[in-house]
Amino acid sequence: RRAAARAVPAQVAESASGDGWHAACSGTAMNAIPARLPGGRLARRRPPPVGAVRSATVARSTLVAAAARVLQRRGVRGLLWSHVAREAGTRCLVLQRRFEDIAQLVYECHDRSATALESCLLRAETAGGIGRDRLALFLRAALAARREQGAFLPLLRPQGVPAAAAKGLREREAGIRARLDRVLRRGERDGSLAAVDHEAAVELLLAALYAPPPARSALRRAELDAGVAEMLVRALAGEALARNLSGPATSAPPRR
Question: Most CB within 10 Å of its CB: which of 41, 50, 116, 216?
Answer without folding.
Answer: 116
